[in-house]
Structures are given as structure tokens and as C-alpha cells.
């Protein structure tokens, strides 16, 4: 049964990676994969649970003497239902609730035109200057917002500023690199860093302290090379029809600062209360919900219902939420059955170097989705409380392995355009071909990625 579970997981993973050629949405594949693996785990409980759970299974039986006269299969199934499902679902739900809250806040700012505070200020027509402005805006926006939303906002801006498709592809591909690099150093910048932060593998301060500089290097190096290909001025922006809005500039700016300020407050909330991050995120969402209700009750604006949070929630990307649910549930089965532990042992025995292991995982994240990759790695390795060896010290909270994993999983996704959500959305919006990106940008992204790893290693040697 264990072999069957591994084979099914590999097939499901391939279906997710080959979403576009197969024309099957990756969410459908992930949900089917996750639920199918739990069904197989339940059917094979009699042999899988005693072998994988060991002492934990025996402890569960000792705490539940009413199961003593039941068959081994029934005992194992009860362990799955009352221990494995509850524990894994609890961890997964924290991540999903955090994402739902964050995505709702971002949509709330967007529907009120809050992001115009950024887009309206970019007026330069110099090609190189525009590239650097867009790159750094994307870098810091993706550290606060999610990579997907940041990429959409910046590409929509590009369409207003750059008319030539070839040049727009250069800018769009640069946005992909900047978005992935920007999300790697912030605890709320990328789904993978959210996962590591929510689970307590890293803290916000350490992540910023050690991963920020490598992330900047991984962006600046490729953008510098791209800037050498751009010369002169862009064509003047064609005048379009004047866009009217029922929101004043003051209203838009207020919503921007409240939304973004709320997102920034979440790590502060966690450090003060020590509560899980999703509590802080939902607290901020609740506060914004009350604010918008009072605002609309007082102003009674036209089409107010379209901008209230009940309607805004319907705009969030629920397929992405369900994708994370499916893939994290699938990885949970691999963790419960001991597959990930066996992989960790194999990596340690064959490589036994956290820098090499993380670097390999980062390159893999450009081929497969970095969310299941990081989820799998978190199942392979546990956070060490009291390290007994120098190697084990890499796996403590804020250890080298976890910090570098955050960088590698995020930045490594830029090596191929299908390796990140930012790349996929840019590919879809601008019709960038896989081959064009691979020819012009993959080597640049790899160069920046390796340079960032080198900077991180220097930081550890110096500090």
C-alpha cells in the first residue's frame, strides 16, 4: 500500500505540473490527489499505522482502553480519525484562514482603488528608470501583499505605460523575478514563508535580518543585466477617456494605508500576543469590516453593496485556497506514513549539507509547485529543540536550514516561468511563451539565485 501511495502521489504531482498541456485545472488534481491518498491510507491502516506511528500509536491505545478488544485494523483507523486527521487539519486550517484573511484585505484595497497611490506616481518615460522603479515597487509590494496580486497590479500598470509587446515582455519577466525575490524575505510575502512562519520554523525578525540582503541581490543582478538591453524613451502615453470614481483620493489613500498597515501589523500582533498569525489576520479583517460598514452606513454611496466585504469575499481566489488544501492534505499522508522521514534520511546520508540540500530544493521549486515542496520538506524535517550535534543545530527555530529554505523556495521559482504563481499569471496575461522566458530569463534568474545563496553563506560566516 505504501508503494501505491507514492506512485499515486507522483502521478498527481505530474498532473499538477502539466496543468496547461493536460487542460485540467491544478486545483481539481490537487483535491482529488489529497482525498485519494487519505482513502488509501485508511484502507491500509492496519499495516501503515503501526509501522509509521510506533510509540505514538501505542500511547494512543493505552489512553483509550476501550479499543483493547478491537481488531488491529479498527484500532489503526481510529488513530487516523482521532489523531492524524485532527492534527494535520488543525495545522492546515491555520494557513488557509490566514490566506483567506490576507486575500480579502488585498481585494478590499483593490476595489476601493487604493493601489492608485502607487500607480499614479510612476510617470517617468525613461526605459531604464522605469524598469528599476517597477522592480523595486514590485519587490517591496510583494513583501506585504501576495506575489499573485502584486504581479497583476504591476502588469496592469505596464499595459498603460509600455505599448511595444517585446519590451513589455522584458518588464513583465522582470516583475516575476522581483515578485518572487520580494516575497522570500517577508513572513507574509509568500505562501511558503507564511507556512514556515505560521508553524514556528522561523521568526519574522530573523527572516528579515538574514534573507533580505540575499533577496535584494537575487533581484538586482538580473534586473541590471536586463537594463542594459533597454535604451531611450518610451512613446508618450496615449490619452484615454477620463475615468470617474465615486471615491475621492482621500478615501482611496485611507483604504490603502488601513489595509497595508493592517497586514504589516500582523507580525507585530504575533510577537506581542504569541497567538497564531491567523488570529491577528482575522482580527485585522474584522476591524476593517467594522470600519467599512460604518463608512458606508454614513456615506450611502452609489453601488455601496459591491464594495462591502461580503461582496469582496466572493472575489478572492477560492480555487487557490482549495488547491492549497488538497496538496497540503496529500503531503500530510506522506508525513503520516513515514515517506517524508525516509526521504530526509536519504538526503542526509547522500548530501549531509544544508546549503546544498536547500539549493537543490530551490531548483526543484522551479519545476514543481513550491507550496507542496515546502510542505513536504517541513514534514521531512522537524524543528529541533535541543540540538545534540552541530548539524542538528541547523534545524532549530531560525536555523540555517529554515531561513535558507525560505529564500530558495521563493527565489528558485523564478528559474522557470511555470515555477511560481507570479510566473504563471504573467504567462497568462501577457502570453509569454515558456521557450522565450527560458532563453532570455532562466539563466538570469539562476545567476541571481546562486548569488543570493552565496551572500547568505557570507552572512553566516561573518555574523
Rounded mean pLDDT is 86
Query: Helices and strands: which structural class?
Result: mainly alpha
Strand content range: under 5%
Biggest sheet layout: none
N→C terminal distance = 48 Å
Order of helices and strands: HHHHHHHHHHHHHHHHHHHHHHH
The level of helicity is over 70%
Give a summary of the structure in a few sentences:
With 463 residues, this protein is mainly alpha-helical. The chain contains 23 helices and no strands.
Could you explain how this protein is built, in words?
With 463 residues, this protein is mostly helical. α11 packs parallel to α19. The relative contact order is 0.14. About 1% of the residues have low confidence.
Keyphrases for this structure?
463 residues; 23 helices; globular; mainly alpha
List the helices and strands and how they pair.
Elements: H1 2-17, H2 19-22, H3 26-43, H4 45-53, H5 55-63, H6 72-111, H7 116-119, H8 127-144, H9 147-161, H10 165-184, H11 191-198, H12 204-227, H13 249-273, H14 277-299, H15 309-313, H16 318-336, H17 339-350, H18 354-364, H19 370-380, H20 400-411, H21 421-430, H22 434-440, H23 442-462
Helix pairs in contact: 1-3, 3-16, 4-6, 6-11, 6-13, 6-14, 6-16, 8-9, 8-10, 8-12, 9-10, 9-21, 10-12, 10-20, 10-21, 11-19, 12-20, 12-23, 13-14, 16-19, 17-19, 18-20, 20-23
Amino acid at each position: 500500500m505504501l508503494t501505491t501511495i507514492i506512485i499515486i502521489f507522483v502521478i498527481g504531482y505530474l498532473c499538477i505540473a502539466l496543468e496547461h498541456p493536460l487542460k485540467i485545472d491544478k486545483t481539481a488534481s490537487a483535491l482529488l490527489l489529497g482525498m485519494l491518498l487519505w482513502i488509501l491510507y485508511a484502507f491500509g491502516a492496519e499495516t501503515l499505522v503501526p509501522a509509521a506511528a510506533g510509540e505514538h500509536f501505542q500511547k494512543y491505545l493505552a489512553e483509550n482502553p476501550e479499543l483493547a478488544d478491537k481488531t488491529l485494523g479498527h484500532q489503526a483507523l481510529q488513530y487516523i480519525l482521532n489523531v492524524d486527521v485532527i492534527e494535520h487539519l488543525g495545522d492546515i486550517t491555520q494557513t488557509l484562514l490566514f490566506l483567506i484573511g490576507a486575500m480579502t484585505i488585498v481585494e478590499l484595497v483593490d476595489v476601493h482603488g487604493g493601489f492608485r497611490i502607487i500607480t499614479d506616481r510612476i510617470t517617468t518615460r525613461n526605459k531604464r528608470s522605469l524598469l528599476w522603479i517597477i522592480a523595486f515597487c514590485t519587490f517591496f509590494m510583494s513583501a506585504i501583499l501576495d506575489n499573485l496580486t502584486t504581479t497583476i497590479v504591476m502588469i496592469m500598470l505596464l499595459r498603460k505605460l509600455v505599448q511595444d509587446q517585446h519590451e513589455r515582455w522584458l518588464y513583465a519577466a522582470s516583475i516575476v523575478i522581483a515578485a518572487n525575490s520580494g516575497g522570500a524575505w517577508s513572513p507574509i510575502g509568500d505562501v511558503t514563508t507564511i507556512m514556515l512562519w505560521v508553524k514556528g520554523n522561523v521568526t519574522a525578525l530573523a527572516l528579515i535580518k538574514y534573507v533580505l540582503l540575499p533577496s535584494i541581490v537575487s533581484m538586482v543582478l538580473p534586473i541590471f543585466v536586463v537594463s542594459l538591453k533597454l535604451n531611450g524613451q518610451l512613446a508618450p502615453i496615449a490619452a484615454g477617456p477620463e475615468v470617474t470614481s465615486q471615491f475621492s483620493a482621500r478615501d482611496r489613500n485611507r483604504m490603502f494605508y488601513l489595509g497595508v498597515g493592517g497586514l504589516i501589523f500582523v507580525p507585530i500582533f504575533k510577537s506581542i500576543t504569541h497567538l497564531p498569525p491567523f488570529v491577528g489576520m482575522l482580527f485585522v479583517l474584522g476591524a476593517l469590516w467594522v470600519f467599512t460598514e460604518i463608512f458606508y452606513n454614513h456615506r450611502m454611496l452609489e453601488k455601496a453593496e459591491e464594495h462591502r466585504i461580503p461582496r469582496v469575499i466572493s472575489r478572492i481566489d477560492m480555487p487557490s485556497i482549495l488547491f492549497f488544501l488538497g496538496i497540503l492534505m496529500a503531503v500530510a499522508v506522506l508525513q503520516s506514513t513515514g515517506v517524508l522521514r525516509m526521504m530526509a534520511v536519504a538526503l542526509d546520508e547522500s548530501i549531509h549539507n544544508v546549503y546544498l540540500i536547500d539549493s537543490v530544493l530551490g531548483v526543484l521549486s522551479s519545476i514543481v509547485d513550491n507550496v507542496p515542496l515546502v510542505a513536504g520538506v517541513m514534514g521531512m524535517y522537524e524543528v529541533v529543540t535541543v540540538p545534540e550535534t552541530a548539524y542538528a543545530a541547523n534545524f532549530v527555530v531560525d536555523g540555517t536550514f529554515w531561513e535558507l529554505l525560505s529564500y530558495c523556495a521563493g527565489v528558485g521559482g523564478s528559474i522557470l516561468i511555470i515555477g511560481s504563481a507570479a510566473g504563471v499569471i504573467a504567462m497568462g496575461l501577457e502570453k509569454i511563451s515558456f521557450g522565450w522566458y527560458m532563453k532570455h530569463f532562466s539563466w538570469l534568474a539562476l545567476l541571481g539565485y546562486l548569488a543570493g545563496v552565496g551572500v547568505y553563506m557570507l552572512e553566516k560566516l561573518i555574523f
